[in-house]
Amino acid sequence: MDIFIRRTLPNGDNYVDCDSTSSFFQVLTQSYADSTPTTPIFFILSPGANPVKDVENLARKNGIDPNKYLHQVALGQGQDIVALNKLEIGHKEGHWVMLQNIHLMPSFLKDLEKKLDVYATEGSHANFRLYLSADPSKDIPIGILERSIKLTNEPPQGLKANMKRAFTFFTKEDIEDKDPKIKTILFGLCYFHSVMTERRKFGPKGWNMMYPFSMGDLRDSSTVLNNYME
């Protein structure tokens, strides 16, 4: 499919490579601009991906205190009542609600779909936003999928694309304003991370056991780097 798009569409390379030049937070920011109180953002989780920090940073960027106005509920036994309560608060008062791992409670999803239909009819507060996350699952109602903006954060294919993704994770200040030694080591960390991520596709030939190398590992490595060097 990638080869077909590159060869057939005008400027096809731009369509295939666009995500490798933007960080996940940048993609999330663009998606937020397209969201509405009736259009949730749905994170389809991949191994090692955790969008919670990105949603918290997005809230801060938009002047919203995540400790007060972002309600996070990890779905599990008995949490459906808590989730519905937080949804009511968000719907009426304009808070953000994030329901994590919704695939763990398929029975709750039917109630969630009906609740979202009611909110769409009543009209929610203009600031209300709903974020959902789930592993790929056949139990997600099609109605929830159709109304949502769907995002996933799978690593790109190829070492070059992985390197681009690793570098876009950092801001310009994180790289250019640092000591040359830090910049050199940071490049080494990005290269190491890209190789580790790329080797996963080779299965047992790449690793004896699967480890979900994620952008969180790269972030923590850069934090340790700065702490030691400073």
Please name the defining characteristics of this protein.
single chain, 230 residues, Rossmann fold, five-stranded parallel sheet, 12 helices
List the helices and strands and how they pair.
Layout lengths: L1 H7 L3 H6 L6 H11 L6 E4 L7 H10 L4 H4 E5 L4 H15 L2 E5 L5 H17 L6 E6 L7 H6 L1 E4 L6 H10 L3 H5 L3 H20 L15 H15 L1
Parallel strand pairs: 1-4, 1-5, 2-3, 3-4
Describe it.
The protein has 2 domains: 151 residues, P-loop containing nucleotide triphosphate hydrolases (Rossmann fold, 3-Layer(aba) Sandwich); 71 residues. The chain has a 5-stranded parallel sheet with strand order 2-3-4-1-5, sandwiched between helices. Helix 3 packs across helix 4, helix 9 crosses helix 11 and helix 11 runs antiparallel to helix 12. With 230 residues, it is α/β, with parallel strands linked by helices. It is built from 12 helices and 5 strands. The termini are far apart.
The unreliable regions are none
Rg computed from alpha carbons, rounded to a whole number of angstroms? 20 Å
Number of helices: 12
Biggest sheet: strands, sense, closure? 5 strands, parallel
What's the total count of β strands? Answer: 5
CATH homologous superfamily descriptor of the largest domain: P-loop containing nucleotide triphosphate hydrolases
Tell me roughly what share of residues is in helical segments: 40-55%
Terminal CA distance reads: 47 Å
Name of the CATH first level of the largest domain = Alpha Beta
Examine the secondary-structure arrangement and name the CATH architecture of the largest domain: 3-Layer(aba) Sandwich
What structural class do helix, strand and pairing data support?
Answer: alpha/beta
CATH T-level fold name of the largest domain: Rossmann fold
> Residue-averaged pLDDT, rounded?
83
What gross morphology would you assign? Answer: globular
- Count the domains: 2
The helix-strand sequence is HHHEHHEHEHEHEHHHH
Q: Assess the beta-strand content as a share of residues.
A: 5-15%
Sheet with the most strands: spatial strand order: 2-3-4-1-5
